[in-house]
Design goal:
The complex is a heterodimer of chains A (about 350) and B (about 650). By secondary structure, chain A is mainly beta. Chain A contains 2 helices and 27 strands. Chain A has a 4-stranded antiparallel beta sheet. In chain A, a hairpin with a 5-residue loop joins strand 20 and strand 21. Chain B has one domain: TonB-dependent receptor, beta-barrel domain (Maltoporin, Chain A, Beta Barrel). In chain B, the strands form 5 sheets. Chain B has a 22-stranded antiparallel β-barrel. In chain B, strands 1-6-7-4-5 form a 5-stranded mixed beta sheet, with no helix packed on it. The chains are: A mainly beta (about 350), B mainly beta (about 650). Chains A and B meet through helix 1 and strand 7 of A and strand 25, strand 26, strand 27 and strand 28 of B.
């Protein structure tokens, strides 16, 4: 073979080998399409999925009671834009659903029945929860701002903020006062919603992450403590009328208690401490054994279905891939489980 | 303190040191002299025992000449030589060679590892190309030669010396879209025994490019905020040989300060993140060449300071570390077929990091011994063993066996089988909360096989290589929520990763009449999957690691005629999954560049001017999810060499 042909052959072989790549056959995940929505009370349950930090993969999952199926992300399916980064919580008020997206510093407002997007409220630093305090005003708690934002509910805009001593987290309104828990200060703070001022503080433990009012009108706060200073958390019962702590139930530094909630009658409290625990609101000590024990799951949120007391528990699995939602009977028997988004942080029944 | 107590190791060293008395060959009469101009051609003591069996890819002058005013991110990433995980603009860019992370791929500067002791990484945007006189990439492990961290590969950059060139001044400058302005100047002097140079540089960019915001309703066009880049520094080196030309001294010192805005991604709002990086790296080198022995002593002081402002009036997060490195290497020519190289390294590091309490210190010492055997002119065989000790704990013995066969005309066959490791970083061990001081080092077994073809006929040269590799890494360190407290993340030896694939590299150069054409191409096929995991219900088993493309392809075609040239550069990056369960991914994309340039001659100097279009097809793509990347943009640059003899072609 003469040299020219040799060179050509080598060149051909060379270019063939460069182009002979075996392409991976990848099937992108498909999601079921959702036609016009008409969500009515009692239809299902919403799960806010945080996603992974900075990955912009927050979702709002919806579990339908009738069909038993879940939709991984209701928001982006109806509105064709992603929800954002770290979906923290949602609140339904006056026909609208307010979805707090923490690391995108915004609240998405959608119509509750159709989930069609109406407004985006922006201007927050690191918003956590939203609580309507009147028909025209809502408070938004915040992780970094050392302030609570004020939102005008008539036009869905953020109008300002007022100073708060630290990280604000859960909020509940009792009578004409707003009670706010703090994850870095060991107090529950009392705010006057007319003057927007902090008026009092009630000493509990650090890590106050969830609040629940019981059937006797008492306010319970659950605290996970503080890892850095080895301070334990605890469960505290507060009298909202005179701002005193009536019952103090401390935990240990190996506990991590979150997601305090109650059934519709508010006579039974539930919370997470790796496993699910439950106790009557009249109890004066913490339950010794779990109600639902976690085996390999990483339980992340609880919700109690108002109509029949079923216990819904979410599992974050390994916190970086899709989680699961479990449905247990009143007696703690597993009935159902389904796939939801990453880090399913809060469960809301509508 | 009990060290090196492994009896096998002790025996090996005893035998190695006794070898000269067992083999009495005729005296080696090769007289080695060291001059400033040949010191770079002589392999460094480590190079000829760390490289055999592995494919080493050096950047071609065409690939590097038009990036000398930029950073390594531009040089390696824009050329497509390796796929980089880049946050865009002048922000963080790291390697993913064969699925390995930045902490598993050291960057060696004149043989000194620049990886940070705190997080083990190296940001390529903080390495300006003007510092890198040459750049080479070694894919495949190199721990036996270079120590902890070399699991995925090694990037090497060296500073060159020269002799008898008198005074030389070189200016490199580049200006581009989005407020980019880079200047660099290098002034050097050399005579027969002395060399000195100093280089100074400043790189500025606004990076305020526009992009379609895919996270907002109706995808509005937004402008990048808080993405500025400011970097300046200087480096000097002084070298001299003794009259006898048996000893060489080199001192180098490099200082740099960078200030960057960290822009929010499309789904974030925080516009206030800023990062300042400052480092100084000084090294000294003494080489001695005798008849049968070469000795090298190297010392380096590396300091790093990083200050990170996270906005929201949160306190700054800072990292301050200092490392002292001391190395002694000796090469003994036992016969004209056998050479033994032995080396000892001691690295002492101290880190003061906001998240560590208290200030943390660490000392590690290692020793390696390599035997190189050349039975005839067709074979090159190297056996290399290394042992490292960290705070009283001994790492497992690592080593490599490399073989190269030259017996077939035009062809070299290479094979390397090695065990490599990576010690946990300071952050892995001492971060509060979460740091795990019981972590074991990552342990990796690597097999590389390559066929290299080189052919030259009249005006055509062809280079081609194909490499196949197989690597298993155990005790892969990864952070995940700890079982003790799910809100706290901690590192553990979580999984086993299996990486395998092949790489093609080719280059054709053809000169005809006054035309010179060069074609460079490469293709990487990487399958890097998680095989075992300690995480219960881990859905990533059997799946490709995130952000590692299976297919990566690059090509450069340059044609030059007299003093003009045109170069077209094209790369293809395959699909990358962004979550471990593969539920989301970033699509594959093509990227192209076009450069045209001309050489300009002045009386006593000559210059190169070029104009470049990046992202020629104005592709919209993401490298890290939700991080915008610039569309089509332009750069113009000039290089001027003063007081240099004229070259007859580009």
């Amino acid at each position: 073979m003469n040299l020219q042909v040799k060179i050509l052959a080598i060149g051909l072989l060379f270019s063939l080998s460069i182009f002979s790549c075996k392409k991976d056959k990848v099937e992108p995940p498909t999601t079921p399409s959702v036609t016009a929505l008409n969500i009515q009370p009692g239809d299902g349950v919403f799960i806010t999925d945080e996603g992974t930090f900075q990955a912009g993969n927050a979702k709002l999952s919806f579990y339908n009671f009738t069909s038993g199926n879940s939709t991984e992300d209701l928001f982006s399916q109806v509105n064709s834009v992603p929800l954002g980064d770290v979906c923290q919580s949602l609140t339904t008020y006056n026909g609208k659903t307010y979805i707090v997206v923490n690391n995108s510093g915004k609240i998405e407002v959608v119509a509750t029945t159709t989930f069609a997007h109406q407004h985006t409220i922006s201007g927050f630093s690191s918003p956590r929860f939203i609580l309507p305090v009147s028909s025209t005003k809502a408070y938004v708690s915040d992780l970094y701002a050392n302030a609570i934002s004020i939102v005008n509910l008539s036009n869905d805009t953020r109008t300002g903020s007022f100073a708060f001593p630290g990280e604000s987290e859960a909020m509940v309104m009792i009578g004409s006062e707003v009670f706010v828990s703090s994850t870095d200060k060991g107090f529950v703070y009392v705010v006057n919603p007319t003057t927007d001022l902090v008026t009092d503080s009630i000493p509990v433990a650090k890590g106050g992450n969830s609040l629940q009012v019981d059937n006797n009108g008492k306010l319970w706060v659950l605290c996970f403590g503080d890892y850095a200073t080895s301070a334990p958390g605890g469960l505290y019962k507060i009298n909202p009328t005179n701002h005193t702590v009536e019952l103090s139930l401390p935990l240990t530094t190996s506990d991590y208690a979150t997601k305090l909630c109650a059934n519709a009658a508010k006579d039974t409290l539930y919370y997470l401490n790796y496993s699910v625990y439950k106790m009557a609101s009249s109890n004066i000590s913490l339950p010794a054994t779990p109600f639902i024990t976690a085996s390999t799951q990483s339980f992340y949120a609880i919700g109690i279905r108002p109509s029949n007391g079923e216990v819904f528990v979410s599992d974050a699995v390994n916190y970086t891939s899709n989680g699961r939602l479990y449905r247990y009977s009143l007696a703690g028997i597993l009935l159902d489980d389904d796939l939801v988004g990453i880090c399913p942080g809060e469960i809301y029944f509508y | 303190m009990k060290r090196y107590c492994n009896p096998f190791v002790v025996l090996f060293f005893l035998v190695a040191m006794l070898l000269p008395t067992f083999h009495l060959y005729a005296q080696d009469t090769i007289v080695k002299t060291i001059t400033l101009s040949n010191v770079d051609i002589l392999p460094s003591l480590r190079t000829d025992i760390a490289n055999p069996g592995l494919t080493i890819e050096k950047t071609d002058s065409i690939q590097s000449s038009r990036y000398s005013a930029g950073t390594l991110t531009d040089l390696l990433g824009q050329n497509g030589i390796t796929f980089l995980k880049s946050y865009g603009g002048g922000n963080l860019a790291t390697t993913t060679i064969r699925g390995a992370s930045a902490s598993q791929t050291p960057l060696l500067w004149n043989g000194i590892n620049l990886q940070s002791p705190t997080n083990g990484g190296l940001d390529l945007s903080l390495v300006p190309a003007i510092i890198c006189d040459n750049v080479s990439l070694q894919n495949g492990g190199g721990s036996s030669g270079w120590g902890s961290g070399a699991i995925g590969g090694v990037i090497q950059t060296n500073n060159l010396l020269s002799a008898n060139e008198g005074w030389k001044i070189k200016y490199v400058g580049q200006a581009g879209s989005f407020g980019e302005q880079n200047h660099g100047i290098k002034i050097g002097f050399s005579n027969s025994r002395f060399y000195a140079d100093v280089r100074m540089y400043r790189q500025i960019a606004e990076n305020n490019f526009t992009y379609r915001n895919l996270a907002k309703d109706s995808f509005p066009i937004d402008t990048m905020q808080n993405s500025y880049f400011f970097q300046q520094g200087m480096m000097g080196q002084v070298a001299w040989t003794t009259k006898s030309q048996k000893q060489l001294f080199v001192i180098r010192s490099w200082y740099q300060s960078s200030d960057r805005g960290i822009p929010p991604s499309m789904v974030e709002v925080n516009n206030d993140l800023r990062q300042k990086d400052e480092f100084s790296r000084t090294m000294g080198n003494w080489k001695l060449y005798l008849n049968k022995v070469e000795l090298e002593i190297k010392s380096a002081v590396l300091t790093e300071y990083m200050d990170f402002y996270q906005g929201y009036n949160q306190p700054n997060s800072y990292t301050h570390s200092i490392s002292l490195v001391n190395e002694v290497d000796g090469k003994i020519r036992i016969s004209n077929k056998i050479t033994n190289t032995i080396g000892v390294n001691d690295t002492w590091s101290k880190a003061d990091v906001t998240q560590y309490v208290p200030i943390t210190k660490q000392n590690r010492a290692s020793v390696f011994d390599a035997v190189k055997f050349l039975p005839n002119e067709n074979w090159n065989l190297v056996l290399n063993l290394r042992e490292e000790e960290l705070q009283g704990k001994i790492t497992p013995l690592v080593g490599s066996i490399g073989a190269e066969y030259y017996g077939i005309k035009f062809i070299t066959i290479k094979n390397s089988f090695s065990r490599n490791y990576r010690l946990p970083t300071f952050n892995d061990l001492y971060w509060q909360p979460g740091g795990n001081s019981d972590l074991k080092p990552e342990d990796s077994w690597n097999e590389d096989f390559a066929v290299v073809f080189k052919y030259k006929y009249k005006n055509v040269t062809i280079d081609y290589s194909v490499t196949a590799y197989y690597r298993i890494t155990e005790n892969w360190i990864q952070w995940s929520p700890s079982s003790a407290n799910s809100a706290i993340w901690a590192p553990s030896n979580l999984k086993e990763v299996w990486s395998r694939g092949f790489e093609h590299r080719g280059k054709v150069n053809w000169i005809k009449n006054k035309f010179e054409s060069t074609f460079i191409g490469g293709y990487d096929y990487v399958r890097a999957t998680t095989e075992q995991s300690k995480v219960p219900n881990d859905v990533s088993i059997g799946k490709q690691l995130v952000y590692v493309p299976t297919n990566h392809f690059y090509t450069l075609l340059q044609i030059s005629y007299l003093k003009y040239y045109i170069a077209y550069n094209h790369q293809f990056n395959g699909l990358r999954f962004t979550t471990t369960d593969h539920s989301t991914y970033l699509p594959a994309y093509d990227m192209a560049q076009l450069t045209i340039g001309k050489r300009v001659d002045f009386k006593n100097s000559f210059g190169d001017i070029f104009f470049r279009v990046n992202n020629l097809y104005n592709k919209e793509y993401q490298n890290i999810v939700w991080r915008p990347m610039p569309g089509r943009n332009f750069q113009v640059g000039i290089t001027i060499d003063f007081n240099k003899k004229k070259k007859s072609k580009v």
